[in-house]
């Protein structure tokens, strides 16, 4: 696929406080609710990540659903804005005896505290509809991934028809929900350093998509 860089799309505004407040509410039962919906897509994304080697950054690691499934040849760092979700992730790592997680850090994905080209792979699963500034996150992932490296983004994107009407209706509640029900794909096609090489539907029902980008030299 050709490089697809477009101006940042207009999206519903969220702020850091909205997100932290929402996920403080969600954290105790996230795994039993939304976690069940995204479980299959997480496994598909991790399976693709496992085909690569080196250091991996998971942006928006949440409660750590993916952490036990990364292959042992990957060295994993996870970041999240929610301390409550990170506490769940640390518990999961301990309970599953995961040994290839280097760090789980409370960090703003729009201003990462990593040097340029620190990672071979970056994943962002079901996080782009949550972060206050998706374009900034894409630019930061492009910065911290090595040239030739891979960025994997799993997300829901805006649809047409009846589901599109529902999404637009729910969009008015975005700040309360802590995520954007209506989210155009153009919002992540913003970095000239990232070339989109693959876009495919992932489970369940193809409601979500997996985008694979290659970091340009």
Structure in words:
With 217 residues, this protein is of the alpha/beta class. It has 6 helices and 7 strands, in the order ααββαββαβααββ. The protein has helices spanning 16-26, 34-49, 83-96, 134-144, 161-170, 174-177; strands at residues 54-59, 74-80, 101-106, 119-125, 145-155, 194-202, 208-215. Strands 3-2-1-4-5-7-6 form a 7-stranded mixed sheet. A hairpin with a 5-residue loop joins strand 6 and strand 7 (208-215). The two termini are 16 Å apart. The model is unreliable at 159-175 (pLDDT under 50).
Which helices and strands occur, and which strands form pairs?
Blueprint: H1 16-26, H2 34-49, E1 54-59, E2 74-80, H3 83-96, E3 101-106, E4 119-125, H4 134-144, E5 145-155, H5 161-170, H6 174-177, E6 194-202, E7 208-215
Parallel strand pairs: 1-2, 1-4, 2-3, 4-5
Antiparallel strand pairs: 5-7, 6-7
């Amino acid at each position: 696929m050709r490089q697809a860089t477009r101006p940042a799309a207009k999206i519903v505004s969220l702020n850091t406080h909205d997100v932290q407040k929402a996920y403080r509410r969600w954290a105790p039962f996230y795994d039993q609710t939304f976690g069940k919906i995204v479980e299959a897509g997480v496994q598909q994304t991790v399976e693709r990540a496992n085909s690569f080697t080196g250091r991996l950054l998971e942006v928006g690691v949440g409660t750590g659903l993916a952490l036990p499934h990364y292959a042992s040849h990957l060295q994993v760092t996870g970041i999240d804005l929610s301390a409550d979700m990170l506490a769940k992730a640390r518990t999961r790592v301990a309970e599953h005896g995961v040994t290839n997680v280097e760090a789980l850090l409370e960090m703003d994905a729009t201003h990462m505290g990593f040097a340029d080209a620190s990672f071979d792979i970056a994943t962002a699963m079901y996080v782009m509809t949550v972060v206050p500034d998706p374009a900034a996150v894409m630019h930061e992932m492009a910065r911290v991934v090595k040239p030739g490296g891979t960025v994997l983004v799993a997300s829901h994107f805006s649809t047409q028809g009846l589901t599109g009407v529902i999404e637009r209706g729910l969009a008015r509640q975005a700040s309360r929900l802590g995520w954007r029900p209506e989210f155009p794909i153009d919002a992540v096609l913003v970095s000239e350093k990232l070339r989109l090489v693959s876009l495919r539907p992932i489970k369940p029902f193809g409601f979500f998509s997996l985008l694979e980008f290659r970091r340009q030299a």
